[in-house]
Amino acid sequence: MEENKQCTDGEKSRSKCACGVLPFFVGVLVALAFGWWIFPDLLYSKQTQPVPFSHNVHIDTVGLNCAHCHSFRADGSFTGFPPISTCADCHSGGLNVPVPGPAAAPAERARYAAEKAFVEEYVRRGREVRWVLHQYQPDNVFFSHAAHFENCFSCHLTMQGERLNLGTPEDPRNLCAHCHPSVEELSRNIPVKVNVLTGYSRTTMKMGECEKCHAHPGHFYDDGRGRTTANNACSTCHK
């Protein structure tokens, strides 16, 4: 009788232990799910571009490269988004896609409708597209596209030995992709995720990304003072 009682007490103890451990693990799983999936959606708002745009079509089908739409001004500053006059160079003559037939795929119909709306609402009216920025730097950061374009290509024009292949000044896609999201293969826009607290996008470059090049050991040369060809002084970027 005593033996059966001890057995029963042991089962109750194990049951209580299981009841205490189970809520703990459930709480951990809920916390992980909230941190990985729910919280980021609450912290970042999603903004879409006003016009559907396919880098894939413009690069692979039309044959353009980054420099056709994104270029430098006379003073060396970067234009960023192209003005509507640049788009009009190709789109002012009308639609560049044929009218879809009855058997056309949904993707073809969507592409035709998007270009038709773009030409009618923006190109013919000379109305600028209010694109949403994926990346912009804080006010205390100075960044020159021209300086990076010139200095990086001075060594990295082509793959030589262990040097990084950044392409060419005429086709700088590899260089652009080191800092910007690689979009040349995309057939649709990427939603821009903006931090609701700071106002910066999720893809805004962090200092660690800059340090990958500015503090890279391969950029140091032995002059006895440990100087670097990629200026790593704080005052170079922070004004």
Could you explain the architecture of this structure?
- With 239 residues, the chain is mainly α.
- It has two domains: 2-46; 55-203, no CATH class.
- The chain has nine helices and two strands.
- The protein has helices spanning 2-43, 55-61, 66-69, 84-91, 106-123, 145-153, 173-177, 207-214, 234-237; strands at residues 44-47, 192-195.
- The chain has a two-stranded antiparallel sheet.
- It is globular and about 65 Å long.
- 4% of the residues are buried.
Strand order of the largest sheet: 1-2
Structural class: mainly alpha
Major sheet details: 2 strands, antiparallel
For the record, the count of structural domains works out to 2
Dominant shape: globular
Distance between the termini: 84 Å
The amount of beta strand, in percent, is under 5%
| Portion in helices | 40-55%
In N-to-C order, the SSE pattern is HEHHHHHHEHH
Question: What is this structure's SSE topology?
Answer:
Layout: H1 2-43, E1 44-47, H2 55-61, H3 66-69, H4 84-91, H5 106-123, H6 145-153, H7 173-177, E2 192-195, H8 207-214, H9 234-237
Antiparallel strand pairs: 1-2
Q: Nutshell version of this structure?
A:
The protein is mainly alpha-helical and about 240 residues long.
